[in-house]
Every structure is written in structure tokens, then in C-alpha cells.
Amino acid sequence: xxxxxxxxxxxxxxxxxxxxxxxxxxxxxxxxxxxxxxxxxxxxxxxxxxxxxxxxxxxxxxxxxxxxxxxxxxxxxxxxxxxxxxxxxxxxxxxxxxxxxxxxxxxxxxxxxxxxxxxxxxxxxxxxxxxxxxxxxxxxxxxxxxxxxxxxxxxxxxxxxxxxxxxxxxxxxxxxxxxxxxxxxxxxxxxxxxxxxxxxxxxxxxxxxxxxxxxxxxxxxxxxxxxxxxxxxxxxxxxxxxxxxxxxxxxxxxxxxxxxxxxxxxxxxxxxxxxxxxxxxxxxxxxxxxxxxxxxxxxxxxxxxxxxxxxxxxxxxxxxxxxxxxxxxxxxxxxxxxxxxxxxxxxxxxxxxxxxxxxxxxxxxxxxxxxxxxxxxxxxxxxxxxxxxxxxxxxxxxxxxxxxx
Length: 405
What we know:
This protein has helices at about 5-25, 40-55, 120-125, 150-165, 175-190, 215-220, 225-230, 250-260, 260-275, 280-295, 300-315, 360, 385-405; strands at about 65-70, 70-85, 85-95, 100-105, 130-135, 170-175, 200, 235, 245, 300, 325, 325-330, 340-345, 370-375. By secondary structure, it is of the alpha/beta class.
């Protein structure tokens, strides 16, 4: 299936979604006595489940309007601090609050929108001035803006660090741990005073030879020509980025779902039962998760292919082969940036040891500036969202930043 055909099918399915939604609004109306019977609840549950399977999921908002600090409520205003063609730097401005714990939170460019980190931002806001990278959907970026490469990603992070200035803490989650580490080395090598105050790397593929997962194995089993011919498509007619080569978000989402197909089917089954038996709190949690999870963006083809080749196939960081703008990256220049690496014991995307590898890569960093943590019982998403993140990981990060601020 090419991208144009997929786009046509999803638009057609969305028409079905609108029809089902109309029927559901009638069946679910409080004045409809049928809706309160068991057959009525089963009908409503069937309709909503079908609606979710035919829906086109759009980018969600962060929708963080308030934060509570020391018992006081403060308004939060979402502002664009810097805007580039492929990324906006979003600032969560806490009105009436000023402190020195400034954080640049680097969201992954791996299929989902930065809003996947909403829970991460919410948890950090009481203690930190938070900025987050909001990556653009490549199908929305016109061709005349040019390509977006692996080096462009690093260049963006270097630019954001320089914009935010000294005493900015850098936190990267998943895929951008690679670029965050490179950006730190680049800034350190040129003696910039904007080197991150601390560097926190979470659940990232820094050494893909350690406890390889199905993601790592898939990359090794397929040639680069396979990725170019199968995974890369052109943005169809009707979008600003028409003609741009991308790795479509729907393919990435399909890969994510196939890795845990039984789990997703079970969750949908539970959702159906929750609707039938009126367990609205559980149903709302399902809706909130899948509204975000199903919303995906397209990745620029050149960035995706370089990441596959340089990170997942060649493992260039640990092999000493990684470059930035054609020059070798000198990780030994990192001598004074405290490093925290965080992994999930049950992570099935980045295996144990893949993120900890940064500790060995940064050879010049003294032992008292290194810290590694494994969160028991946490999978990939549990490292940056959910109860274990809020209870264990976020306090660890905040303590690490405060200690070194």
C-alpha cells in the first residue's frame, strides 16, 4: 500500500466514524430508555469501540493550565520560545514563579508527538522551568524548507542550549539520548558556557549490542535498501509537505502495535467490558492513553534512515565512529557535566545496558559525577510516565538536578 492509498482509506474510514458517532449520540442519549438496559449498554459499547477503530487521531494538546507549588496555584502559559521549520521549542511559563532549575526536555522524534510527554512535563513543573522540543509532523513541512538530517537534530539541540544559556539542564528520553550526548560533547569541545549543567539520559539506544530487543534485531535483519524501498514513502497530495520523502507515522504505529498485539487486544476487550458495566474511570484512562498513542507523525526520511544505519546497525557511538558535520565527536571533552542514566528493568524497546553505556562513553567524567538507576517493574513508557515515574524516577531526577545546580 502506498501513502496516497492509505490516506484515502483513512479518510473513508473517518466518514464511517462520523456516521457511527451520530448513531451513538442517539443510542446514548439520557432520554433514550433503551440506553439504560443491558442490550443498550452493549450496543453503546460496540458503537464506541467501532468509532475508535475508524477514527483519524490528531495531535493532542499539552493542555497544562495550572501547577501547584507549595500549596499555591500558579497559571501555566504555553509559549513558543523558538520556532524552526522542523521543531518548536515550547516553554511552560509558570506565572509568578522564577527559579534556576531550568530544564530542556528533549522529546523523541520516533513516531509520536511530543505531547506523549505530557505526564513528564506535569511532574517536572512544580520544581523546574520546563522547555520541551515539539517536533513537527514532516508531512506539514513544505519541501522548500529542505531536508532534516541526523546532524540537523544535533544542531537544533546545540542551538536550543545556546538560546537557553548557562545553567540549563538537559533531559533526553529514548531516541534523542544519542543526539543529546553528541550535542553535549560538541558544546564541551568548543568550550561553550552553554554546556548542559547536568545531562539525564533515559531509556535510549546508546549501545544497541547490549541485550538487543526485537527493535534492534529487526534493524539488523533488514538491509538499508529494504528500509529505503519499503519504509520510505512520499507525502500524498493535500498536505503542505506534498512530495517530501518520509517514514510514515502509521507504519511506526503498526510496528509498535505488532510488538504487543495481544496486550492491545486485551486492553480493547477490557474497555468494552468497562463500557458495558459502567466503569467510567477505567474507560476514561483507556481513552486518554489511546487518544495520544494513536496520534502519530511522519519522520523525515533522511533522519530516519541515518538513525537506522548509524545507531541501530553500525552502533557508531560505542565503536568510536560517530561524527557531527563530518568531524569525529570527542566525548572525552565531557569532563564537568554530571551524568544520570535511567533504565527500566522491563523495557522491551531499549534493553538493559543500552543507556548505561553512556557512562563508559564519557571516559573523562569523574566517578563522583556519574549516577545510574534501574527502575524495577518499569517498561519503556513507565520510565517517563505513570505511577513509577512520578513516585521514583521524577524525584530522583529533581534531586540530581538540585544537587548539581
